[in-house]
Amino acid sequence: MQKPGTKQSLLVSLAMLFGVAAITASPLAADEPAARPNFIFILTDDQGWSEISVAMDPTVAQAASDYFETPNMQRLAERGMRFQSGYSPAPLCTPTRRSILCGMTPARQRGTEFRSTFDWSGRLTLPRALKSVDPAYRCAHFGKYGEQIPVLPEENGFDESDGATGNKTGGCPSDMKERGMTAVNDDPKLTSSMTARALDFLERQVRQEHPFYLQVSYYATHLQVQTRQAMLDKYTQKGQPDRAVTPGFAGMLEELDAAVGRILDTVDRLGIAGRTYLVFTADNGGRGTIPGADESLAPPNRPLFGAKHSLYEGGIRVPFIALGPGVEPGSLCRVPVAGYDLLPTFYDLAGGQKPLPDEIDGGSFRVLLENGGHGEVKRGLDGLVFHRPLRKGDPQSAIRVGDWKLVLLWKTPQRARQRLLFNVARDVGEQHDLSATQPDKADELERRLIDYLLSVDAEAPRGQEIGLSE
User: Fold this and answer.
1) Is-above-0.85 flag for pTM?
2) R_g over Cα of the chain
3) Which one of 126, 335, 347, 403 has the lowest number of neighbouring Cβ atoms within 10 Å?
4) pLDDT by residue (tens digit) across 404-421?
5) Domains in the chain, ordered, with CATH?
C-alpha cells in the first residue's frame, strides 16, 4: 500500500483534471456566496430497500417493515426527500464504494468484484472535487472503506479517516460458523464509537469555520449480527417478525438508527442545518437470508425480488434520502438516481462551474432536490447501468431507462443467454417479464447497455465477448 500523497501531488492531479487556473485562482468568484454548503453522507451496509420503518414508496405495499424501528431514518424522510428509485452502483460493497468515490460505474473501473485493475493515479474523487471548488473544504471518512482498495483514504483527498478498513474491522469473523452467530457487546458493529469520531470532526470544522464533507460508512447491517443485550431482549419479546429476520438483526438496525439520530441532533444543535446537505443510502441491497431466521416467513427484501449479489431490484434498489437547503420536507422523487450521481451532485451544490471529466458517469440531481423531485438528471450515459459479469454461476448486466429495466443474463453451462424486461414502475417485484411482448423495447435497451459496456472496455463474462444477442 502506498503512502498518502503529498499536497503537491494532489495539486498536480487536480491541475491535470481541472486546469491550472482552478488551483491558482481564488476559490471564490465575485458573484459567489462566501459560505459553502456542508455535506454529510451516511452509507449503511447491506440494508435493503424495505428494511426500514418508513417506505421509500408509500404506494407500494410492504415497502416498509412494522417490525423494525427506525424513527431517525423516518425523521430524515420527513425533513427531506425520499428517492423511490434510489440505486446502489453495484450489488456488492467494494464496487459501490469505488464507484461513489469516483462518480463512475464499476464497469468503467473494471472493478465489479473486490479486486480491480482501476488506475487511481490522477483521478478525480469526491473530496478532491469539493476541494477544487474551495480548498477550505475539510473531508473525512469514518468506518468501512472497502476491501482490497490499494490506496488509502488520504491518497484520495480525505484529511482524516479510520484508514484501510474492511469487513473484518467491523467485526465480521473469518469463520463462517461464527459469522452466523449473533454476538452481544457494548459497541455493536462499532456504531457508537465510530459516530463519536464523526461528530468530533463535525464539531471541530464548525468551530474552525471550515466547510466540510463527512462520510460515515457504517458496518451495520453486514454480518456478523451484533447488538446490545437490551436490544436483543426488546425484539425477542416483540414477537414474530414480518419477514425472515431475527431479533438480533432488528436490534442492530435500531442501534444504527440511533447513530443517525445523533448526527441529525448534532447538526441541529450546532445551527448548521440551513447550510448542510445530508444524504443517506446503502451500499447494496439486503441479504437474501439472515442466519437464524425463520425462512418460512417472507424474504427479508420483500416486496422486491432478489437480494445482495444480484442485479434484480432486491440487490441494487436501496433506501435513499436527501435533505438540506431547498429540499422540500416530506417530498418524494420517482426519478431514478444512483450512488455514482453523488460526486457531480455535491460538486454542483458546492458551486462547481468547470465541466467534470468525461469519464464521470454520474449526473447532478440538484434539479430534483430543488424542484420537489421533478426534473431530469443529465449524464454521459443514458440511464443507469449495472454490470456483474464475474458473478460465479450467474453473470448479469442490467440497465434502467425511465420506467423500464432490462436484465441480461449471460450464458452459463446451465442456461442459454437470456434477457428479461420489466416495467419496474408498475412491477417493483419484477414478476412479469415483458421481453416477448415488447421486443422493440428490449432491443433498444440491450443496444444501449452493450454500447456502453463496449465504450468503457468493461470486463466480459468468462469465456465470452460482449455483444448483442444473436
Assistant:
1) yes
2) 21
3) 403
4) 999 999 999 999 999 999
5) 7-370 (3.40.720.10), 389-455 (3.30.1120.10)
